[in-house]
Write a structure and sequence with these properties.
Length: 272
């Protein structure tokens, strides 16, 4: 091939190829800096992007699971608050029943204590009925009142509701015998108190489980996000240094191409 040719400029061709490669590398670096990602889409690294999308889906699932658990916690906390008030009221109920079991009470005194018992009975019922959150309650076994928690894979954990009616106090009967029987080992008060304590224990354990699940989900999300960052995040300090180097290289490439394009001009002097 002739070195002195106006048809073929080898130097310009080489300079152009080098400049094109520099521009391509510069575009990649600028994309990483602007997005903050080394792998912003499948065009950057198909395999890494596919893995990243799978991890992002797991994180999204965990986030949604925690949001759903938060709602269930509201139902559970409301039920526990209601049971706590019922339990506190039952202490007063016991005191009144002990007095009603006293055969030495005057008729007027008994009437006063019976009225107090009925008031406490009404309070217990109200606490149970009012323990609702967003229209749902764990102190009712009617349809829609069983809370279900799901993890990011859809696996369900059901919180069993308690029939609040079984916790309500029995109707007062005149005389000392009813109060004495209610306080016995198998009596109405003792039976209801045991049911309330069992429900509080069950819901307390459920609350501990939910808190642990939320904490675990948060830790898992943190681990997934760390791994995701290592997979797709760009090293901006490195990319910044690389950007400056490529910009200088681009300028030099442009100058080199300009010089190569001027070479054929020297052939004109041969015809003067």
């Amino acid at each position: 091939m002739a070195l002195n040719s106006v048809n073929t400029n080898t130097g310009a061709s080489i300079a152009l190829q080098t400049l094109n490669r520099t521009n391509d590398a510069l575009a990649v670096t600028q994309k990483r800096i602007s997005t903050g990602y080394r792998v912003a889409d499948a065009k950057d690294d198909g395999a890494a992007f596919a893995v990243a999308q799978s991890v992002r889906a797991d994180i999204s699932g965990l986030t949604s699971a925690n949001e759903q658990i938060g709602g269930v916690q509201g139902v559970l906390s409301t039920a526990l608050s209601g049971l706590t008030k019922v339990s506190e009221t039952m202490s007063n109920v016991r005191a009144v029943l002990v007095k009603l079991a006293d055969g030495t009470l005057s008729s007027d005194q008994r009437t006063q204590y019976e009225a107090q018992y009925k008031s406490l009975q009404s309070q217990v019922k109200n606490y149970i009925e009012d323990a609702t959150y967003n229209g749902r309650s764990l102190l009712s076994t009617t349809d829609g009142n069983i809370a279900t928690v799901r993890n990011e894979k859809g696996t369900a954990y059901t919180l069993t509701a308690v029939d609040g009616a079984t916790l309500e106090l029995g109707t007062l009967t005149a005389g000392t015998a009813w109060a004495t029987t209610a306080l016995s080992a198998s009596g109405d008060f003792t039976t209801k108190m045991n049911l309330i304590n069992t429900a509080m224990n069950t819901f307390g354990n459920n609350n501990t489980y939910l808190q642990s699940q939320i904490s675990y989900n948060k830790e898992k999300m943190a681990s997934l996000e760390t791994g995701l960052g290592a997979l797709v995040d760009a090293d901006l300090a490195k990319e910044s240094a690389k950007l400056q180097a490529l910009q200088i290289k681009q300028q030099l490439g442009t100058q080199s191409l300009s010089i190569a394009n001027q070479a054929p001009q020297s052939l004109l002097s041969l015809f003067r």
